[in-house]
From TrEMBL:
Binding residues for substrate: 162-166, 221-225, 261, 268-274, 339-340, 443
Name used for this protein in its record: UDP-glucose 6-dehydrogenase
Enzyme Commission number: 1.1.1.22
Family affiliation: Belongs to the UDP-glucose/GDP-mannose dehydrogenase family.
Residues involved in NAD(+) binding: 10-15, 35, 40, 91-95, 132-133, 166, 277-280, 347
Pfam families found in the cross-reference section: UDPG_MGDP_dh, UDPG_MGDP_dh_C, UDPG_MGDP_dh_N
GO biological process, one term: glycosaminoglycan biosynthetic process
């Protein structure tokens, strides 16, 4: 099958960068990314590449190279579907906020709307690719909708989960550990698998392109994220033991990471994991397990989330107890709001919960993050509905200059591991703070000896020494 046109429904964190890289690596294929959100499409088309809706190192130059050549961003969803032989679905699948499975199951309404739209528009056979992370067996639902509505053309469904991490999306896409494609083993299924494999083979070595059945592919994505999140919760659980016993979590992580069965990556203790995937995918896994009556399995994975919530809570508790059991009216500076460095994404960021707890203790918070804008920070807090948005604006200030954010502060808390925090003039920060000046390093990035020499009372996550 000769593929000339592909489209992607959903121009978000996954769809945008993924399609940009496909377009760059496959100049012979026209790639159209569509979205119902006009502002988002306008931002992807912005002449000024600083305004792209997704900030990822290296993404701007790829968009610059391919945009207008064979990469297009548009709001004309029907037209793109009609024109394409392959359609990727990369719309959001948030956790349900209503009804059965509320707070746990994935909300598939956007996926279903897409499937219905594809069925309505398609007049020729199409390959439909699930790119969004989805509960196992979603492909079956998509297939059922596609085959029972529309014009009775043939649809072949593939699952092709994305494993890119934010902040390293471009690298992850250019040099993936693996590409996973699930499909049916019928002749048409194999043909579809080959068509998608051939696209990736333009830049990914064939031995790294795995093909499986659809269900294995869907489940592998949830499993990968559950395992990664579990590693963070495991190291974070140990970080609390370290603080009590006088061990140091970095030393422990290094020691266990040298065991080749464990490996050194993803063992950094933190104030808690965030991001759009980990919590959502585990909740989803828990929901699936429960729906099959697998209560022990569900409880096992749920514990990963519970430890993560505990880690955030104990960080804010520690700030309160250290500041003489009251932070009421005290200024506390947050360095970092994003859920990790090198991204402007704040979804599920630990900073949100920590701030919310401290605001409930009547602290005054000032925030500096190199990439996150004030509007986002307020909207993250307002979304919790703990207090009115007016109160949030009164209690929390957002600064464009880190030194200003720290001025007259009682305590600085590191919430994100941005590199620039390490090279700040900490003496200058100290000189302008209230005394005693506290630093709570929720990412373990600063130099303890240096900070203590300046005069800070320094607390590092996972360090009991
Ligand atoms: C273990 C540790 O590996 C070793 O480093 C430590 O010093 C002592 O404990 P051991 O108990 O000899 O060593 O065996 P190991 O190979 O680790 O297996 C432990 C159990 O886990 C076995 O029952 C094994 O069958 C099981 N296992 C191991 C699995 O079920 N699946 C696996 O993938 C690996
Ligand atoms: C994750 C997966 O890595 C990716 O494969 C999947 O496609 C989407 O979900 P992402 O959410 O972008 O990617 O970020 P990731 O780098 O995995 O970090 C997730 C969270 O864990 C962050 O808050 C990060 O700070 C935290 N983390 C990560 C730690 O606290 N310690 C670590 O050692 C690693
Ligand atoms: P992800 O992190 O999975 O990429 P995002 O929320 O960043 O998720 O992006 C998903 C995008 O999908 C949003 O921009 C949203 O407007 C878009 N979207 C959702 N439903 C549809 C639809 N039916 N048609 C087109 N775009 C859609």
């Amino acid at each position: 099958m000769k593929i000339k046109n592909i489209c992607c429904i959903g121009a978000g964190y996954v769809g945008g960068p993924t399609m940009a890289v496909i377009a760059q690596k496959c100049p012979h294929i026209n790639v159209t990314v569509v979205d119902i959100n006009e502002d988002r499409i306008a931002a992807w088309n912005d002449e000024n590449l600083d305004n792209l809706p997704v900030f990822e190192p290296g993404l701007d130059s790829i968009v610059k190279e391919a945009r207008g050549r064979n990469l297009f961003f548009s709001t004309e969803v029907d037209k793109a579907i009609d024109n394409s032989e392959i359609i990727f679905i990369s719309v959001n699948t948030p956790t349900k906020t209503y009804g059965k499975g509320k707070g746990m199951a994935a909300d598939l309404k956007y996926i279903e709307l897409c499937a219905r739209q594809i069925a309505r528009v398609s007049k020729q056979d199409k390959i439909v690719v699930e790119k969004s992370t989805l509960p196992v067996r979603t492909a079956a639902a998509i297939k059922s909708i596609l085959n029972n509505t529309g014009h009775h053309v043939h649809f072949e469904i593939l699952s092709n989960p994305e494993f890119l991490a934010e902040g390293t999306a471009v690298n992850d896409l250019l040099m993936p550990d693996r590409v996973l494609i699930g499909g049916e083993s019928t002749p048409k299924g194999k043909e579809a698998l080959k068509a998608l494999t051939d696209i990736y083979a333009n830049w990914v070595p064939r031995e790294k392109i795995l093909t499986t059945n659809v269900w294995s592919s869907e489940l592998s994505k949830l499993t990968a994220n559950a395992f990664l999140a579990q590693r963070v919760s495991s190291i974070n659980a140990m970080s609390e033991i370290c603080e009590k016993t006088g061990a140091d979590i970095n030393e422990v992580a290094k020691a266990i990471g040298m065991d080749s069965r464990i490996g050194p990556k993803f063992l950094k203790a933190s104030v808690g994991f965030g991001g759009s995937c980990f919590q959502k995918d585990i909740l989803n896994l828990v929901y699936i397990a429960k729906s099959y009556g697998l209560d022990e399995v569900a409880d096992y994975w749920e514990q990963v989330i519970l430890i993560n919530e505990h880690q955030k809570q104990r960080f804010s508790d520690l700030i309160v107890s250290t500041l003489y059991n009251t932070v009421s009216g005290k200024k506390i500076t947050f360095l970092g709001w994003a859920f990790k460095k090198d991204t402007n994404d704040t979804r599920e960021s630990a900073a949100i919960k920590v701030a919310d707890s401290l605001l409930s203790e009547q602290a005054k918070i000032s925030v500096y993050d190199p990439k996150v804008v004030a509007k986002q920070i307020y909207s993250d807090l307002d979304y919790l509905k703990t207090r009115s948005s007016e109160e949030n604006r009164n209690l929390l200030q957002v600064h464009k200059d880190p030194y200003e954010a720290c001025n007259q502060s009682h305590s600085v808390a590191i919430l994100t591991e941005w590199d620039e925090f390490v090279s700040y003039d900490w003496q200058r920060i100290y000189d302008n703070m209230q005394k005693p000046a506290f630093v709570f390093d929720g990412r373990g990035i600063l130099n303890k000896t240096e900070l203590e020499r300046i005069g800070f009372v320094y607390y590092k996550i996972g360090s009991g020494a």
